[in-house]
From TrEMBL:
It comes from Thermovirga lienii (strain ATCC BAA-1197 / DSM 17291 / Cas60314). The active site is at residue 191. SUPFAM superfamilies: PLP-dependent transferases. One of its GO terms (molecular function) is pyridoxal phosphate binding. The lineage of its organism: Bacteria, Thermotogati, Synergistota, Synergistia, Synergistales. InterPro entries: DegT/StrS_aminotransferase, PyrdxlP-dep_Trfase, PyrdxlP-dep_Trfase_major, PyrdxlP-dep_Trfase_small. Belongs to the DegT/DnrJ/EryC1 family. This is DegT/DnrJ/EryC1/StrS aminotransferase. Transmembrane segments: none annotated. The modification N6-(pyridoxal phosphate)lysine is found at residue 191. The keyword 4Fe-4S does not apply. Keywords: Aminotransferase, Pyridoxal phosphate, Transferase. One of its GO terms (biological process) is polysaccharide biosynthetic process.
Length: 376
């Protein structure tokens, strides 16, 4: 065992900063003995809606369920196509397939790792029912360009990794989750706004879609025991909502700390002459990137990862197998070589330790260790 370690994220350090507020919130819910939905969840929904500047927010059990509920509300079903990226977390595509529709994959851009707008243009067909772009690693997709190439097509944002991210278009600030008809968030503990368990949310522009999702999350019942359609059981619980209400108040500061850490990595990589082997992630100049992950492209990735692990530094690979090559999606008929950028990213990408509390000294240790690997 190395005498010193650095995890890829350290939730314990973060908990110390908010422990008192969290304990107070937990006590409030425990005293109320109201655990599922209810006033805490409603308050959290209102607070997120107001933070984002949207009309409707619907809490649910996870980010994966948020995606499923969103597509259910749009009546996505057999015969429909939904355009998305193969370089993302599994849930982005499984929700499409689960409803009997076809995920149509489009490759990503090599610098931002986000879905290619030209690719979307080429993938459109009469069957395209929606586009499901992912704001990957905390950076928004080119929302205005997607709208332009696909006028009239419904957009559902997978904003699971991007709460607080912003894109500036013609002097206007557009927040992640506010440009699509629907948008989905995840409160998985390691996300920028994480719960202490599972949680998710759909935000909606129209009241009609919002009302449908409110119903779908409680078995399709508008009134209790009156089932207008077949929904699912996907509720946010009050303890998680109370925790998230506390954590939402700190989100902007934590995101800013992540950004500072990312700039520090950028600088260290350049200063220590690593650019020959390591390419830092690119933040598009129109984007306020919130660095859910700091993902570099690097040579001899697997050996580097092992070298760092032996020193005590944990890194992660997002994502080792792009979705079009997953066994469960073989039936879609995609072949290796079809999405070369996603495929090479899956072999070159490495997420360095990133969390709001990481220290400059720890970051220097990471970069010095990487340097040692390439110069040894
Ligand atoms: C985390 C994540 C999800 C799923 O969220 P869960 O809350 O874990 O179900 C969906 N899409 C992306 C891009 C994610 O990163």
């Amino acid at each position: 065992m190395p005498d010193r370690t650095l995890p890829s994220f350290d939730l314990k350090r973060n908990f110390k900063r908010v422990k008192e507020e969290i304990m107070e919130a937990l006590e409030r819910v425990l005293e109320s003995q109201h655990f599922i939905l209810g006033p805490e969840v409603k308050a959290f929904e209102e607070e997120v809606a107001s933070y984002l500047g949207v009309e409707h927010a619907i809490g649910c059990a996870s980010g994966s369920d948020a995606l499923l509920l969103a597509l259910m509300a749009l009546d996505i079903s057999e015969g429909d196509e939904v355009i998305t990226t193969p370089y993302t977390f599994f849930a982005t595509a499984s929700c499409i397939a689960r409803l009997g529709a076809r995920p149509v994959f489009v490759d990503v851009e090599p610098d931002t790792y986000n879905i290619s707008v030209d690719g979307i243009k080429n993938a459109l067909s009469e069957r395209t029912k929606a586009i499901l772009p992912v704001h990957l690693f905390g950076q928004m997709v080119k929302v205005e360009e997607i709208k332009e190439v696909a006028p009239g097509i419904t957009i559902v944002e997978d904003a699971a990794q991007a709460i607080g991210a912003v894109r500036f278009v013609d002097g206007k600030a557009i927040k992640a989750g506010t440009f699509g008809e629907l948008a989905c968030f995840s409160f998985f503990p390691t996300k920028n706004l994480g719960a202490y368990g599972d949680g998710g949310m759909v935000v909606a522009k129209s009241k009609k879609l919002a009302d449908r999702i409110f119903r779908l999350r409680v078995h399709g019942a508008g009134r209790q025991y009156m089932h207008e359609e077949i929904g699912i059981n996907s509720r946010l619980d009050a303890l998680q909502a109370a925790i998230l209400r506390v954590r939402l108040r700190h989100l902007e500061i934590w995101n800013e700390e992540r950004r500072k850490a990312a700039f520090r990595y950028d600088l260290l990589i350049a200063e220590k002459g690593l650019n020959e082997w390591v390419t830092p992630p690119r933040a598009d100049e129109h984007n306020h990137h919130t660095y859910h992950q700091y993902v570099v492209r690097c040579q001899r990735r697997d050996q580097l990862q092992k070298f760092l692990q032996d020193k005590g530094i944990t890194t992660r690979v997002y994502y080792p197998v792009p979705l079009h090559l997953q066994k469960c999606f073989q039936y879609l008929g995609y072949k290796e070589g079809q999405f070369p950028v996603s495929e090479s990213l899956s072999k070159e990408s490495l997420a360095l330790p990133m969390f709001p509390e990481i220290t400059p000294e720890e970051q220097e240790w990471v970069i010095d260790s990487i340097r040692q690997f390439y110069l040894k």
